[in-house]
Amino acid sequence: EDVAFKRALLRGARTSAVLLTNDKLAVRAPYRICRTEDITRYVLSADAPVLARARLAQLGRDVLTAAPSA
Questions:
Q1: Among residues 59, 22, 68, 23, which one has the least CA distance to residue 41?
Q2: Under a CB-based contact definition with an 8 Å cutoff, are residues 43 and 17 in contact?
Q3: What's the longest Cα–Cα distance across the chain?
Q4: Which of 9, 11, 63, 65 has the most beta carbons within 10 angstroms of its beta carbon?
Q5: What is the rounded distance in angstroms from the CA atom of residue 62 to the CA atom of residue 43?
């Protein structure tokens, strides 16, 4: 039910964003909501691996990095 709800939200949205924390980079989700290319903007942790940023940027998506915590 949660998966269907998220898919419906994405279908109706002009843009989409995902907060992608480092722990999410290392695992596969049990359900596929959408393709990586379907997301408009990714927000990564300040200490996200450079390779992860580069791969998302290669897709032509906005890649933002959170400011490091003080």
A1: 59
A2: yes
A3: 38
A4: 63
A5: 8
- Is the pTM above the cut of 0.90? no
Cα–Cα distance between 63 and 48 in angstroms, integer? 11
Residue type, 50: V
Do the Cβ atoms of 45 and 21 come closer than 8 Å?
A: yes
CA dihedral 58, 55, 50, 9 (to 10 degrees): 100
Token pair 């408009």 in the structure block, residue: 40
Which helix (H) or strand (E) segment holds residue 43: the answer is strand 41-44
